[in-house]
Specification:
The protein is an alpha/beta fold. The protein is about 45% helix and about 15% strand. Strands 1, 2, 3, 4, 5, 6, 7, 8 and 9 form a nine-stranded mixed beta sheet that branches. About 10% of the residues have low confidence.
Length: about 325
């Protein structure tokens, strides 16, 4: 495991706090990761502000927005997204992945501060995978959004990112729920959010396809020339990514299922060797990999799972009810 900008100050962190330092390990899980927002919101409502945040993939993105103080504005924008908005944020390519991510993260950079990690009040780490060596890399310095983007390079979907002269892939390939990173950054108590526990057969959702087709039909009626191409592109995209036939899986079915299986098995292994004090399991079985427009549902589930474990959370964090 390699560390970029990591300093060992766990002992200092402990001595500076009367209560235990709470660490939050935010796991990978694509669109299911919006539930991390609900987890954070509910913890804050309980008076618990994690001193350490470690994130992988979508967990790194939500964690970066949180520690940079922009979670409220980000959530307001996110909950208004439609399928069409999500498609417009995707800069499709066939070089190294399916989506470059420059348009999406460019939007974040334009609308949100991008401070250096070392300037933040909370300690933060983004977990990535070095493409050349396969090493686990923790990014703990430099611009926070760049660190998050490097962790979001899901193979087959988002293109790799060059960081510190190395090409980085999704951190979920090596550490889907980064409990170890949270502990190394000084957390005494770690709450882990595992999104990889119910991942059988997840892919591009039928609900998403139906909504996209409905929106395309409506816009097509308003402007035939402009939207015929959009509608045709979406249909071709869906047809390529997903066959819709359980007997003949499509490209995206294969990629998504393979990543899900790998991350589920790896999560079990890593967390058995380094268990957190408490694991939160948002139940989002019907969420597909690309259901980014369903943020409201995921956030509500994140809040629910924290409320379900409120007594244990307060006990570990030493925060009275």
């Amino acid at each position: 495991m390699s560390r970029i900008g990591l300093t060992d100050s766990g002992a200092q962190a402990k001595s500076d706090h009367a209560k235990p330092v709470v660490g939050l390990a935010l796991g990978s899980g694509s669109a299911r990761g919006w539930s991390h927002i609900g987890v954070i919101q509910e913890l804050e409502a309980m008076g618990i502000r994690p001193g350490v945040v470690a994130g992988t993939s979508i967990g790194a993105l939500v964690g970066a927005v949180y520690v940079s103080g922009q979670l409220a504005d980000f959530t307001e924008w996110l909950t208004k997204l439609t399928v069409r908005d999500v498609v417009r944020l995707m800069d499709f390519t066939f070089s190294g992945g399916f989506v470059k991510g420059e348009r999406l993260f460019g939007y974040f950079s334009e609308h949100h501060p991008n401070p250096n990690i070392e300037e933040l009040q909370q300690r933060y780490a983004s977990v990535c995978t070095e493409m050349k060596s396969g090493r686990e890399v923790w990014v703990t310095s430099g611009p926070v959004l760049a660190a998050a983007r490097a962790s979001c390079a899901l193979p087959g979907l988002f293109t790799p990112v060059k960081l510190k002269d190395s090409w980085m892939l999704d951190g979920g390939l090596v550490n889907p729920v980064p409990v170890s990173a949270a502990r190394a950054l000084g957390a005494d108590v770690v709450f882990a959010v595992n999104l990889n526990a119910q991942l059988v057969g997840l892919h591009l959702s039928a609900a998403g396809r139906q909504e996209a087709e409905r929106e395309a039909d409506e816009e097509d009626a308003r402007n035939t020339d402009a939207t015929a191409k959009t509608k045709g592109f979406w249909h071709r995209l869906v047809g390529y990514l997903e066959s819709g036939d359980p007997e003949r899986p499509g490209f995206f079915d294969v990629v998504a299922s393979s990543v899900n299986i790998m991350q589920d098995r790896l999560t079990r292994s890593r967390m058995a060797g380094d268990p957190p004090e408490l694991t939160l399991l948002p139940r989002l079985e019907d969420f597909a990999l690309m259901d980014f427009h369903r943020a409201g549902e995921a956030i509500a589930e994140g809040r629910r799972v924290v409320q379900q474990h409120e007594a244990d959370i307060r006990a570990w964090a030493q925060v009275p009810g």
